[in-house]
């Protein structure tokens, strides 16, 4: 009798641990059940994937969805809708909401809000502070939590760990990899007058200069060594940090964003003004080249979007009152596929950065690869499709993208989560059914 599946992806080009090649995938009960030539198989639902590449579901380990507290900018429903429209199957959401996610109640509230409203799989970071440092070892293990996040420099919201003593308490307490925004707060304060005097977002990389970032990364690594912690250094922006962190790969993992790999000063500020303003800043081409060097040499572990919408009215305030951050979850994959089309990285390397890398670093259970027994999460892409990224096509509640009007080659055509087609050619499933991610290290014992 023919083998039967719930879902069969037929005739696509699979991007797996075996390399890239033609093949079918069968999904049963939400999990990948067979890979290979499944010509004789039956299925309730068949996706003809000829001409498409099938990637493991893309995981974005840094998004700010603003709920609760700032739903005028973004919320869990719209943010995750943008994710699946962009081929993203899972997100890690950041704790600088209002209230901050720094206790079990705030995490439970986010998980409750996500149920039935989030389109993709999700987990939430716990914010680390001086107040909850000693509780973090417990907090980071709560179901639905992807780990602890700390801000060493002020950004949006008031989550801040600026001194070494507090950093030491947090890194000494936790067991999981700690995600860190590394900018040196004392130096930011010293130099803030530069931003105020300039009153121009072009001064953003001058105020928050490369030394501000490098200094924080060095303090972080020193304390991580002292305490035996593992750290995930978010959105690296300088050539110097990449070279520095390359010497500490045993304890440090590295994220870069599509925008830091794509945009560059001064043009981005001339063209977009405060829309190009984010923390840490978009810098000049020499730093962008440094990030590409790190990506090419394997120093970079993951691509995260740092999706951080602010409304255009908020952005219209005079710099530096204009808030820092830009949307990105929906454009992460199109922008990176375009770099792939231009020959800047291979499709296998991209898969490593957006699926295998997040799963490896954070120990996500059952995700991150196309393999029997893993969840049936897939991102189907057309590598040849030429499309234009437009503000009006963005799901984010702020209604814009820093890549407005950019033509890209390569586009997500379908997003499949646990064998369920959540997005196909821009159309969404009837209802949202994203679930909390599970993590190997914190799974309860039987
Ligand atoms: O530019 C940024 N915006 N960087 C951050 O670290 C936070 C983010 C936000 O939440 O707006």
How does this model look, in words?
It contains 14 helices and 17 strands. The protein has helices spanning 76-85, 104-114, 136-139, 164-173, 185-198, 204-207, 210-227, 239-245, 258-262, 267-272, 285-296, 312-315, 332-341, 347-362; strands at residues 4-16, 19-28, 31-36, 42-48, 53-56, 58-63, 88-93, 121-127, 145-151, 178-181, 231-233, 252-256, 302-303, 378-388, 407-417, 420-424, 427-428. The strands form two sheets. Strands 1, 2, 3, 4, 5, 14, 15, 16 and 17 form a nine-stranded mixed sheet that branches. Strands 6-7-8-9-10-11-12-13 form an eight-stranded parallel sheet. The protein has 446 residues and is of the alpha/beta class. The structure holds (4S)-2,6-dioxohexahydropyrimidine-4-carboxylic acid. (4S)-2,6-dioxohexahydropyrimidine-4-carboxylic acid (DOR) is lined by residues 64, 96, 155-156, 181, 278-279, 308, 324-325.
Tell me the layout of helices and strands.
Elements: E1 4-16, E2 19-28, E3 31-36, E4 42-48, E5 53-56, E6 58-63, H1 76-85, E7 88-93, H2 104-114, E8 121-127, H3 136-139, E9 145-151, H4 164-173, E10 178-181, H5 185-198, H6 204-207, H7 210-227, E11 231-233, H8 239-245, E12 252-256, H9 258-262, H10 267-272, H11 285-296, E13 302-303, H12 312-315, H13 332-341, H14 347-362, E14 378-388, E15 407-417, E16 420-424, E17 427-428
The protein binds (4S)-2,6-dioxohexahydropyrimidine-4-carboxylic acid.
């Amino acid at each position: 009798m023919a083998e039967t599946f719930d879902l069969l992806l037929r005739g696509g080009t699979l991007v797996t641990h075996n390399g890239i090649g033609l093949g079918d995938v069968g999904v049963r009960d939400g999990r990948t059940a067979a890979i290979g030539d499944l010509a004789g198989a039956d299925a309730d639902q068949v996706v003809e994937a000829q001409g498409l590449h099938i990637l493991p579901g893309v995981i974005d380990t840094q998004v700010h969805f603003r709920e609760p507290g700032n739903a005028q900018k973004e919320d869990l429903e719209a943010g995750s809708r943008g994710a699946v429209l962009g081929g993203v199957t899972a997100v890690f959401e950041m704790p600088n909401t209002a209230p901050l996610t720094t206790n079990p109640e705030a995490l439970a509230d986010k998980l409750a809000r996500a149920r039935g409203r989030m389109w993709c799989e999700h987990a939430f970071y716990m914010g680390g502070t001086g107040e909850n440092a000693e509780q973090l070892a417990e907090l980071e293990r709560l179901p639905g939590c992807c780990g602890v996040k700390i801000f060493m420099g002020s950004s949006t919201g008031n989550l801040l760990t600026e001194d070494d003593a507090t950093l030491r308490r947090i890194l000494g307490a936790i067991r999981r990899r700690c995600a860190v925004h590394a900018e040196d707060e004392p130096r930011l304060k010293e130099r803030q007058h530069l931003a105020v005097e300039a009153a121009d977002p072009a001064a953003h990389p001058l105020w928050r200069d490369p030394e501000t970032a490098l200094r924080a990364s060095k303090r972080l690594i020193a304390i991580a060594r002292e305490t035996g912690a593992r750290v995930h250094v978010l959105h690296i922006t300088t050539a110097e940090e990449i070279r520095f962190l390359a010497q500490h790969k045993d304890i440090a993992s590295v994220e870069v964003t599509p925008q830091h790999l794509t945009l560059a000063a001064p043009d981005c500020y001339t063209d977009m003004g405060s829309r190009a303003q984010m923390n840490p800043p978009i810098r000049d081409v020499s730093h962008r080249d440094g990030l590409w060097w790190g990506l090419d040499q394997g120093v970079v572990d993951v691509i995260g979007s740092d999706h951080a919408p602010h409304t255009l009215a908020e952005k219209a305030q005079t710099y530096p009152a204009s808030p820092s951050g830009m949307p990105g979850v929906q454009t992460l994959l199109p922008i990176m596929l375009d770099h792939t089309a231009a020959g800047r990285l291979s499709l296998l390397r991209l898969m490593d950065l957006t699926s295998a890398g997040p799963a490896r670093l954070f120990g996500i259970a059952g995700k991150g690869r196309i393999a029997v027994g893993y969840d049936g999460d897939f991102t189907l892409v057309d590598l040849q499709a030429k499309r234009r990224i437009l503000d009006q096509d963005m799901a984010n509640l702020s209604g814009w993208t820093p890549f407005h009007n950019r033509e890209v080659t390569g586009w997500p055509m379908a997003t499949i989560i646990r064998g369920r087609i959540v997005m196909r050619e821009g159309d969404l499933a009837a209802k949202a059914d994203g679930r909390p991610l599970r993590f190997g290290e914190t799974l309860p014992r039987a």
